[in-house]
Write a structure and sequence with these properties.
42% of the residues lie in helices and 16% in strands. With 393 residues, it is of the alpha/beta class. The structure holds pyridoxal-5'-phosphate.
Length: 393
């Protein structure tokens, strides 16, 4: 019913993914490179979101605004139906992004010099956000078994006891595509509570879960929720990142007040009216669109797995349980990341993300974004294969 096949021109639209290749990859031929890196989608936003935005724009007046009751109701309803989680509407705070939300929570509840725990590999801002705020970043590595990640609870509990103020949890996991089990999420949340550690739970990829997996919201299974700050957004799910819309869910009244005060002191303005309009429309009408999106992402994933694995012996592409990001294991090829990136960018003309961007644990891996029409995926796979031939020569 919806269109996931049209190839939209994104070059020269001030797109970070398409127009920043020269700067990010230190090359001079960015216009020849196919970008499959930053985590946004090359699909158009859902038509019902576009209609809502056009309608709002046509109203013509854009004075100061706030996310009204109908936006909040849409969020509450989405979480109830999509994630079987009932929240009180008063628990919501709005922000421009999930990373700004995470930064706000760190500013509100930790102090410079405090120790913040993260797991590796992980999305780079998990490290850079606390580091930029002069918090000490403490990393513990996830256990990796042939590309599958798990958390060693003994090591985790040990780490929590080393004077940690906050733990930032990526659920589902970017870049590994892991959907943490209900048991894992509960144990993580309860251990944080037991050791007096704030849990910042980034659940931005929650809607992008493949069957038969299901996302577990930390606050829905934890014995206590006062220590949990959940950060979510419709921006990954519906490709709205440029509109900047996100929210925090905070059950503890005092913590919410503190967050509000911190946001005011930092002169945060929350969401724009267009971000709020898009959030409401996406959550009100988005379920069928997401179901179709997941079918397309599955087809794209299967294509990459089939063709890369058969054409480049030694490459392992695991099927993610969530997200549109493939975590490709090339360790068996015995090439350095530098050589791999050089071949991809200069021979294949393909931009993937080098695994070490996600921490030292990512060495030997590449992250490939397949949220684009299948024709684009096929082009990307062909470029990857061409690049790999120059590696083995
Ligand atoms: C785990 C995770 N958190 C946060 C973000 C970014 O969120 P925002 O753009 O709302 O700051 C991303 C984007 O890729 C992500 O993967």
């Amino acid at each position: 019913m919806y269109d996931f096949t049209t190839v939209h021109t994104r070059r020269n639209t001030d797109s970070i993914k398409w127009d920043w290749l020269n700067e990010i990859y230190s090359v001079q031929h960015g216009e020849e490179i196919l970008p499959m890196w930053v985590a946004d989608m090359d699909f158009a936003l859902p038509p019902f979101v576009e209609e809502a935005l056009i309608k709002r724009i046509q109203s013509g007046v854009f004075g100061y605004s706030y996310p009204g009751q109908s936006v909040t109701q849409a969020v509450v309803d989405w979480l109830a139906t999509k994630h079987q989680t009932t929240i009180d509407k008063d628990w919501l705070l709005y922000e421009s992004g999930v990373i700004p939300s995470m930064a706000l929570a760190l500013q509100a509840f930790t102090a410079p010099g405090d120790r913040v725990l993260v797991h590796g590999p992980v999305y780079p801002p998990f490290r850079s956000t606390p580091a930029n705020l002069n918090r000490e970043v403490v990393t513990f590595s996830l256990t990796e078994d042939e590309g599958h990640y798990s958390l060693d609870f003994d090591a985790f509990e040990q780490a929590l006891q080393e004077n940690i103020a906050a733990f930032i949890f990526c659920n589902p996991h970017n870049p590994g595509g892991k959907v943490w089990s209900r048991e894992d999420v509960k144990r993580i949340a309860d251990l944080c509570h037991q050791h007096g550690v704030l849990l910042i739970s980034d659940e931005i990829h929650a809607d992008l879960v493949f069957e038969p997996f299901t996302h577990t919201m930390a606050l829905s299974v934890a014995d206590h929720t006062d220590h949990i700050i959940t950060c979510m957004a419709p921006t990954k799910t519906f490709n709205l990142a440029g509109l900047q819309a996100a929210y925090l869910i905070v059950t503890d009244d005092k913590k919410r007040e503190k967050l509000k005060e911190t946001a005011t002191n930092a002169a945060h303005m929350g969401m724009t009216v267009l971000g709020a309009t898009a959030m409401k429309a996406a959550y009100q009408d988005g379920s069928p669109w997401v179901a179709e999106l997941m079918t397309q992402l599955e087809e794209n994933t299967n294509y990459v797995i089939k063709h890369l694995s058969s054409e480049i012996p030694g490459i392992v592409v695991l099927k993610p349980e969530a997200t549109y990001l493939l975590w490709i294991d090339y360790r068996a090829l015995n090439v350095t990341e530098k050589d791999m990136m050089h071949a991809l960018l200069h021979e294949g003309k393909l931009a993937l993300e080098p695994g070490t961007k996600y921490g030292p644990e990512g060495d030997g891996f590449l992250r490939m974004n397949i949220a684009c029409p299948l024709d684009t995926v096929k082009d990307g796979v062909e470029r990857f294969i061409q690049a790999s031939k120059t590696l083995t020569k």
